[in-house]
Amino acid sequence: MQLRITHRTEYSYDAPLAYALQRLRLVPADGPTQTVKSWSLSIYGAGEELRFQDHFGNDTRLLSVEGTPHTIAIEVGGEVDTHDKAGVVGPHRGFAPLWLFRRETPLTTAGEGVRDLVSSLPDGSELDRLHALMTTVGARVRYTSGTTSTETSAEEALKLGAGVCQDHSHVFVSAARTMGVPARYVSGYLMMDGTTVQAASHAWAEAHVQGLGWVAFDAANGISPDERYVRVATGLDYRDAMPVSGIRLGQAQEQLAVTITVEQ
């Protein structure tokens, strides 16, 4: 399937910024499930200082801004050919060793809720238990926008019983690591049914299964990602893979607007 994606992020300020530094992870790479046919990145109101590939293999750009601009806009987009591999991404690659993906983070630390969830899973092969985990996470955490934030941990989302795709992914990753399976968070895009305009990018998880390598699981939708998905960045949790992050100095008030379109 050939997908066309546009993604605009705009920050508006009511006063000049003393200084701001932003990190972008908005450029997808070729892989077993996708081939990037074209991709562009445009920046307004800021300057690119550095670009590099981080230890998770993510294309990373650093931007800085100071002084007069009251608006910073970042636009990316292009066309990606996607391939349905039944969620199988393949062998582990990159600078980060596989054992690193068993490490807990503040957002994925397992508590009583996650451990109880794992103990409730039926017996079976590792792959069967991961599919059961995906279904269980979707049932235990209802998709409800506005109930959680980017600081909500897996345990907190599980206790609330509600969240968004970021929370589903954190709970899945935390539980998989509790099972002894390396797991990682994935950010990217999903072509949704019935709509092309979206207010946020998507997130899911991948677990490393013996004999298959990395296998993707989208607990928010109850499926292994297919040709409707485009992978952009991975990490131990949301903070490692978030599309835009940064710091700013000064008293200016910030407003954020995000517009995404994903269409065939």
TrEMBL record:
Transglutaminase-like domain residues = 157-221
As given in the record, the signal peptide range reads none
Concerning SMART domains, the annotation shows: TGc
Note the SUPFAM superfamilies from the entry. Cysteine proteinases (SSF54001)
Top-level division of the source organism's lineage: Bacteria
InterPro entries linked to this entry = Bac_transglu_N, Papain-like_cys_pep_sf, Transglutaminase-like
Stated name of the protein: Transglutaminase family protein
What species is given as this protein's source? Ollibium composti
